[in-house]
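Hi U.,

Before I forget, here's the chain from the pilot set. I'm dumping it here mostly so it's searchable later in email.
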Amino acid sequence: MNTPAAQMPESDKPLIIFLMGPTASGKTDLAIGLREQLPVDLISVDSALVYRGLDIGSAKPSAEELAQAPHRLIDIRDPAERYSVAEFRRDALEAIESIHAASRIPLLVGGTMMYFKVLLEGLADMPETDLAERAIINEAAEQHGWAHVHAQLAKVDPETASTIHPNHSQRISRALEVYRTSGKTMTQLRAEQARQQQDLFSRYQIVQVAIAPHDRKVLHRRIERRFHLMLEQGFVDEVIGLRARGDLEKDLPAIRAVGYRQMWEHLDGDYAYSEMIDKGVAATRQLAKRQLTWLRGWDNLNWVYTDTESGENRKKTTLINEILNFLPHQPL
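Structure:
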C-alpha cells in the first residue's frame, strides 16, 4: 500500500526520487513539471538517450525542454561507442552525489529498467569470458565427467556448487572459470554486490514512482501516435544522416534501439516503408510490455495512473500532486 506523505517517517538521509514507466507514458513531461515544484535536478535513465544524434527516434527531450530542465547523462556517447550498465551505475552515482552536494534532489527519470535495477542492487564484477580457461574445463569434463568438475567447484565455492546440479555443465563451467580467472568465487562477488545494495539504501532515502495508463490499449495508441509524429519530425532523415557517417552498423547498441533498427533495415531494403512503420510500432509495444513486466515485480513502488479507469486523461497537476504525496515533507 502506498504511504501518504503525512505518515511517512522522516529521515536524515538525502532523498532520491525515481520516476519510472513504460515508453510513451509521459515521464519527461511529469519530470519537468516536478522540477517546477521541487529543487530537483534530472538524471536520464535511458539507454538510447546517452547517444548523440539519436534525437527524434529516441523521443529525446527537445532543446527547449532541456533548456528548461537540463538532464544529466544525455548525449554523453557517440553512437559508434558502447555504454555498459556498469558505466551507467558509476555515472549515475557520481551525478547523485554532485546534486546532493549542491543541496538539491536527484530525480532519475527513464524507462531502462536494467539501469534502475543495477543502481539499486549493485553489480557483481564478474570477469569476462576466458575461452582458454573454458576449454581446459571442458577438456577435464570430457575426461572425467561433469560430476568431477562439479566436485572441483565444490572445493573452492561450496555455496555456489550447492545451487548447481552436477549435470548443469554451463553453470558449473562458468562458476569455475570465474574463480580461476579472477581469484574470487561467485559467492564472494555476489556478496560484494549485496554490500553495494546495502550501502545505497543505508546512505539514501529512495522514493520510487511508476506512471502508466490503466488500460494498455491507451498506451498502445500513444505509442502509435508518437511513432507517426517522429516520422513527421524527420526520423527518416535522421537515420539517413547516421548511415552517411559510414562507421555505424545495425549491430551496435545505439542502432539496435527500438525504432532505429527497423528504420535501418528499411533503408537497407529489407522491407517497405509501410512495413517499417508496422514493425517499429510493434517493437515499441513489445518494449512497453517488457517494461511493465519489470515494474509489476518491483518492490516498494508507488503507482500513479495517467488516466482514470474509464480511460479519461488525468490532469498533469493532479499527477504531480499525487507524486508529491509520496515524498517526505522536507526532502533535504
